[in-house]
Write a structure and sequence with these properties.
Layout: H1 6-22, H2 25-35, E1 47-51, E2 54-57, E3 62-65, H3 68-71, H4 80-92, H5 103-115, E4 123-127, H6 130-148, E5 152-156, H7 165-169, H8 174-177, E6 187-190, H9 195-201, E7 207-212, E8 215-216, E9 222-223, H10 226-239, E10 242-246, E11 271-274, E12 285-289, H11 291-295, H12 311-326, H13 329-345, E13 350-356, E14 359-364, H14 373-385, E15 387-388, E16 390-393, E17 396-399, H15 407-427
Helix pairs in contact: 4-12, 5-12, 13-15, 14-15
The structure holds pyridoxal-5'-phosphate (PLP).
Residues 129-131, 134, 160-162, 213, 217-218, 246, 248-249, 275-276 line the site of pyridoxal-5'-phosphate.
Length: 429
């Protein structure tokens, strides 16, 4: 007889899970504080279940989720296709390492290259997150810097490229970078959307690469002008610098296009990073290299990952792309986005709505005596009206709902948001 008894292990695991599920929110938050590293502050709620655009907390409270795990749950919570594909892939072949490959890994790489209309010779590296995809892109740029001797790497003010040390070196916000002292050297931050500053930065032909979010997400959904992106493409091409587009948030249908660069005439990057929506919530990131040269910047042994691109992750991403493609979601994203933007513009105190598909930023007029009106509203909306959105700044809200949100759900969400505005208004009088 075997020393191990799988059947009894199963019942022990289920009993433990049951115990975890019987705790209430207050108890769990207390245990959270005593057992988890405090980098996230206090969680807003303890969530136990999700379905589509809705989630429920430990007390049975229901929320409409217009944040989607921060632009991640492209198909909402517990999508039946994604759930079944992940569990059947795990039951067939789970992790194998990159000493081996699998049909889903190859199929996903081919699918991404096809959707990106990447030229022959293009290739994909799989990672587990947005930061890691950007780390891979940064290492490619560092290879280019090392071989050409061009010392400068450019990013923009307001940028967010992630929290690992390399990606953090490219992230502008001083509060994120400065506590850590010296990071990767040679990175400069240019003023956002400033074409003259861009021209000046490229005047001496000494730039190795530039990292750009076509629309800055964490900064509050701020788009770069087409003319800026086109100029950046021209300058990088003529000076032999690499153009890296961080589409971690804007990619995979979020803006109503497969990738945001496809909405901008004449702009194809050398490198593009993806993550967030790619796996509908299953962790996966990707670096897409356009053309043979970009893909050859790193050769065998110069980069790697244990988990990246494993069968369950690539199966989840393949299913996500398939679902988006076969159900006509991209045009829905555009019409529903415009519908939401129109409703948002009707709200009191809203002074600007920036809407690109279902990537939406909302600026509020400042309220005298209220330090952070956006945060205030986010709390009111969640606690009193069962609506999840977030604040990217003191006066800026962000919405990044599932791409398959229905018009009925959108209208219900706007109804709840209107009530939250009225609430906040009354309180501030
Ligand atoms: C979220 C985000 C990242 C970081 O992704 P993680 O998965 O959190 O590492 C990088 N770039 C952009 C544009 C993002 O929105």
């Amino acid at each position: 007889m075997s020393e191990y008894d799988d059947a009894s292990l199963t019942s022990v695991a289920l009993a433990e899970q049951h115990l975890a599920g019987t705790a209430d929110s207050a108890e769990l938050l207390d245990r959270y504080q005593k057992s988890l590293t405090g980098v996230f502050g206090t969680p807003q709620a303890v969530l136990v279940r999700g379905a589509g655009a809705r989630v429920w907390d430990a007390e049975g409270g229901e929320y409409l989720d217009l944040l989607g795990g921060i632009a991640v749950n492209a198909l909402g919570h517990a999508h039946p296709l994604i759930s079944s594909v992940i569990s059947s892939q795990q039951a067939t072949l789970g992790h194998i390492s990159n000493l081996f490959t699998s049909p889903t890994q190859v199929a996903l790489a081919e699918k991404l290259l096809g959707l990106a209309q990447a030229p022959p010779g293009s290739s994909v590296f799989f990672a587990n997150s947005g930061s890691e995809a950007n780390e891979a892109a940064l290492k490619a740029v560092l290879r280019h810097r090392h071989s050409t001797g061009k010392p400068r790497i450019l990013a923009l003010e307001g940028s967010f490229h992630g929290r690992t040390t390399g990606a953090l070196s490219l992230t502008h916000k001083p509060a994120y970078r400065e506590p850590f002292g010296e990071l990767i050297g040679g990175v400069e931050f240019l003023p956002f959307n400033d074409r003259d500053a861009l021209d000046r930065a490229f005047a001496h032909g000494d730039v190795a690469g530039i990292f750009l979010e076509p629309i800055q997400g964490e900064a509050g959904v701020l788009p770069l002008d087409d003319a800026y992106l086109q100029r950046a493409r021209e300058l990088t091409r003529t000076s032999g610098a690499l153009m890296v587009l961080d589409e971690v948030q804007t990619g995979v249908g979020r803006t109503g296009h497969w990738f945001r660069f496809q909405a901008v005439g004449g702009v194809v990057p050398d490198l593009m990073t993806l993550a967030k929506g790619l796996g509908s919530g299953f962790p996966i990131g990707a670096l897409v290299s356009f053309g043979e040269q970009a893909g050859a910047l790193m050769s065998a042994g110069q980069h790697g990952t244990t988990f990246g691109g494993n069968p369950p992750a690539t199966a989840a991403a393949l299913a996500t792309l398939h679902a988006i493609e076969s159900s006509g979601i991209l045009s829905h994203v555009n019409t529903l986005g415009e519908h939401l933007a129109a409703a948002l513009r009707e709200l009191p105190r809203v002074c600007q709505v920036r809407q690109f598909g279902l990537h939406i930023g909302v600026d509020l007029v400042p309220v005298p005596g209220v330090e952070a009106p956006a945060k205030d509203l986010v709390t009111t909306a969640r606690e009193r009206h069962g609506l999840i959105i977030n604040a990217t700044g003191e006066t800026t809200l962000r919405l990044a709902p599932p791409l398959n949100l229905t018009f009925t759900e959108a209208d219900e969400a706007m109804h709840r948001l209107r009530a939250a505005f009225t609430d906040a208004e009354t309180r501030n009088q």
